[in-house]
Amino acid sequence: MTATVHPRYEWLYIYAFVNPESGESRFYLVPVLNKDAYQAVMAAFAQSVGAGPEHHVLVVEDGGGFHVPALQGHPVGIQTVTLPPYSPELQPVERLWKLTDATLVQRSIISYSFIVPTETASGILS
Description:
By secondary structure, the chain is α+β, with helices and mostly antiparallel strands. About 20% of the residues lie in helices and about 15% in strands. It has one domain (about 15-115).
């Protein structure tokens, strides 16, 4: 006989964008880490910062397998630079994970409502 399991947890992933000069930060919460979520977050970020043909934004990213190469479709105005493997010290946003993890990791959370102010039409929480 096999016991029935009822998982009582959900994963929630954070995409973070930080302007290294001003410290201004933008966070996007998604239920999965995959290429579709990545493209949706990049589109939402591009729109939020006004990226376009006349306004270019450089995004520094780690080598996550879910990141999409520019050839597969970054929003207009978004350019990316991928850091070498195992180089978190070069990634400005790495410093934020201590702050987000300290309050969220391994916690019993009844509702995301205190974390998530809005949900976009694409399902991205920002």
